[in-house]
Amino acid sequence: MIRRVLPALAAGALMLPLAACDGPGGVELGHNWEGSKVFVLTKVSGLSTITGIDPASHTAEPLAAVPTQSDDDDTASPQITKTTDGRWIVTVPRKNGRPSRLYEVNTKDQVLDGLGTAEGGRVLIPTGDYVTAVGDKATSSTGKATALVYDPATWQVKRDVTLPVNPGLAAGGTPGLCVGDNSTNGFTLAVVSPKNGTVKALPQVPKTEVQALDCSTSRPLLAGSPTATSTSTGTATLHLAKQGEIDVLTTSTGRIDRVAVDSTSITAAVSLPGHVELVELDRSTGKELHRTRLDGMAATDGMRKTGKDWVLTSGDSAVTVDLGRGKATTFTLPGQLLNAG
Description:
Elements: E1 3-4, E2 15-17, E3 38-44, E4 47-54, E5 59-65, E6 79-82, E7 88-92, E8 100-106, E9 111-118, E10 123-127, E11 130-135, E12 146-151, E13 156-162, E14 169-173, E15 176-183, E16 186-192, E17 199-205, E18 208-214, E19 221-226, E20 238-243, E21 246-251, E22 255-261, E23 265-272, E24 275-282, E25 288-295, E26 302-306, E27 309-314, E28 317-322, E29 327-332, E30 336-339
Parallel strand pairs: 19-21
Antiparallel strand pairs: 1-14, 2-9, 3-4, 3-30, 4-5, 6-7, 7-8, 8-9, 10-11, 11-12, 12-13, 14-15, 15-16, 16-17, 18-19, 20-21, 22-23, 23-24, 24-25, 26-27, 27-28, 28-29
């Protein structure tokens, strides 16, 4: 998965019970914790809420209100991150760059567990056995982009790594952290090992505007469009090329909002005027395997696989897609999407 990058964590446990009835601000909270397989943040009646999505019943409902305090940064949205071991972490920014508050979504007890705080101005990225907090140079006191590597079992900082490139885009996976940025000369990418803090700069990818990034396998995948030939109309044709240790996926038209890779396939969400095309390709050859057109979607802000279905979110809508059958079902979120991780 990809995160666009625009926390030292204190120990402690804050238990916030969440009743399946009228919640804070009159928000009616649901109770389908067990059926919810994907969690996102939505704005419901003016409150940021954790919304659970049940792909089987094609429903979404608010399950918890994110705690608010007087020093919350109202100009920045909370973030939600799914760690490699399956935990969902919510980050709440605070004013004036103060440490962000962290909560874990405890689906078993149906509560939010307070984890303490994280350095402000960073985005949490799952990186195998670790969670890495990435900050760009604009928010750094040293003027350099850095990554803080945390042990999620103790939430202690293991190391602080200086990044060789400003992280306009960042993604993580078992191999580590990928960070990169577009420039007039192309896309610059670096891979960071959270285990030992080593940084490997990879050759620049020219003539490509990278819009999405996946670092879940040993070969990073960059996805975007050629800078000289891209248009926004017509049928999207996807092309997979190999450049040294990097795979590059480009679309002939539109924008690749999201991309996900496993050992056998690549799945890309391509946004076009009035619709999104979800396309699956063979990981080795780039041959198209499946394609489903999703009319009415303007973009893809979130994309996660659960079972055989993909769950896509954007605006106030969610859609489940079974690419093998070419079947898509659209349903409404309880509020406007704030963040899908």
